[in-house]
Amino acid sequence: MIRLLLVGGLALAPVIAGCSPSNAPVAAPKAARAAAATTAAPVDHAVAAPAATTPSSPVVVAQAGLPSVLVHKSPTCGCCAAWVEHLRRSGFTVQVQESNDLEPVKKRLGVPAGKGSCHTAEVGGLVVEGHVPAADIKRLLSARGNARGLVVPGMPMGSPGMESPDGRVQPYTVEKINADGSTSPFATHGK
């Protein structure tokens, strides 16, 4: 079962239960899980509504020049669905491919060992692993150099798709995947 914080009909902050990175043991802080659990409604599955279907949601048009994004995710992961909505609100056109086994995708795309998260995306020839902010993806797309992609290992609270009820952001680093498969810091978020 997944417990989600439901705000305006959108699942915004999952309490990690059944949705976890495949090779990075990072979970939401205990206090955040407890806070979200007291305000969350249990659901058997998460289905995020399109951005333009709720009266309070602005209509989002894909930005010209941005490549489309293919997101590989588990069919039951609410935080992945929330990250997809983050990308759409940021102007990306997003397609979703659901699978119960993401390891072959991660291996095919070259996600570095120990850097996994709960979803993997392909965008403009790059791999994006985990809860990477859309602004960081856009920045890399505009000046990619020899980078192969970006990763946010684990599932840091407050990252896109992992928003907390109180708006807190756990400090985390977005890492660039270099041509040789190593990683280096690309951006930091949180305090």
Quick tags:
191 residues, alpha+beta, 7-stranded mixed beta sheet, 20% helix
Verbal overview:
This protein is an alpha+beta fold and 191 residues long. It has one domain. The protein contains four helices and ten strands. The chain has helices spanning 30-39, 78-89, 103-109, 134-142, and strands at residues 2-7, 10-15, 41-43, 69-73, 94-98, 119-123, 126-129, 149-151, 172-177, 183-189. The strands form two sheets. It has a seven-stranded mixed sheet with strand order 5-4-6-7-8-9-10, sandwiched between helices. The longest helix is centred in the middle third of the chain and has 12 residues, at 78-89. The protein is globular, with a radius of gyration of 16 Å. The chain starts with a strand and ends with a strand. Mean pLDDT is 76; it is low at 1-18 and 20-60.
Annotate the secondary structure layout.
Layout: E1 2-7, E2 10-15, H1 30-39, E3 41-43, E4 69-73, H2 78-89, E5 94-98, H3 103-109, E6 119-123, E7 126-129, H4 134-142, E8 149-151, E9 172-177, E10 183-189
Parallel strand pairs: 4-5, 7-8
Antiparallel strand pairs: 1-2, 1-3, 4-6, 6-7, 8-9, 9-10
Q: Which strand order spans the largest sheet, edge to edge or round the barrel?
A: 5-4-6-7-8-9-10
Order of helices and strands: EEHEEHEHEEHEEE
> Mean pLDDT across all residues, rounded?
76
Oligomer: single chain
Number of helices: 4
The total tally of domains equals 1
Overall shape: it is globular
Task: Provide the low-confidence segments as ranges.
Answer: 1-18, 20-60
Strand percentage: 25-35%
